[in-house]
Amino acid sequence: MSSNAQQESSLVAHARRELSTIGEDQDFSDSIIAAIKGFETYGHSGGSHTVGVAVLVSLLNHENLSALTDDPAEWLDHGNNTWQNTRNGEAFSHDGGKTFYLLSEGAHDFNRAPIHESRYHKPCESCGARTPHQHSPRCRNNPVNIANS
């Protein structure tokens, strides 16, 4: 056994073994192993590992992690009264992002059901933040400042 293999985690060793059983191309396998090694750099515990895997899978599938909003910066205008969400490429709107449909739910231009409503977006009046995590540290609406008041 090489010294490199001895230093690998059990997860990386497991991934190598499983990838070899399905005969994957070496370049493909190396890219998957690199992703696993990157994930491991955080030092996840059992609980954070489970959450981290779920977040990683969502991101790898181009899924949004929070509700879509009607923020104009979140919608790409394709013309002809059609907008596509920049955070979730399968979300399309015909009213600038106030409502949308998802291609994965079988919706399309001629069958827009089911229709979802975007979360109302209003920038913070105090600091202009577009999400709760973007408030400036001194903003009165920063969740940390609210919790400590």
Could you characterize what this model shows?
By secondary structure, the protein is of the alpha+beta class. The chain folds into three domains: 3-60, no CATH class; 72-117, no CATH class; 122-149, no CATH class. 35% of the residues lie in helices and 10% in strands. It has five helices and five strands. The chain has helices at 3-7, 10-21, 26-40, 46-60, 143-147, and strands at residues 75-77, 83-85, 91-93, 99-102, 116-117. Strands 1-2-3-4-5 form a five-stranded antiparallel beta sheet, with no helix packed on it. Strand 1 (75-77) and strand 2 (83-85) form a beta hairpin. The chain is flat and about 55 Å long. The mean pLDDT is 84.
* Helix count, DSSP H or I runs of 4 or more residues: 5
User: How many structural domains can be distinguished in the coordinates?
Assistant: 3
Radius of gyration over all CA atoms, rounded: 21 Å
Number of strands: 5
Between the first and last Cα atoms, what is the distance in angstroms?
58 Å
Major β-sheet profile: 5 strands, antiparallel
Runs in which pLDDT lies below 50 for 5 or more consecutive residues are: none
Helix coverage percent? 25-40%
- Strand content range: 5-15%
Average of pLDDT: 84
Sheet with the most strands: spatial strand order: 1-2-3-4-5
Order of helices and strands: HHHHEEEEEH
Q: What class do helices, strands and sheet pairing give? A: alpha+beta
Global shape: flat
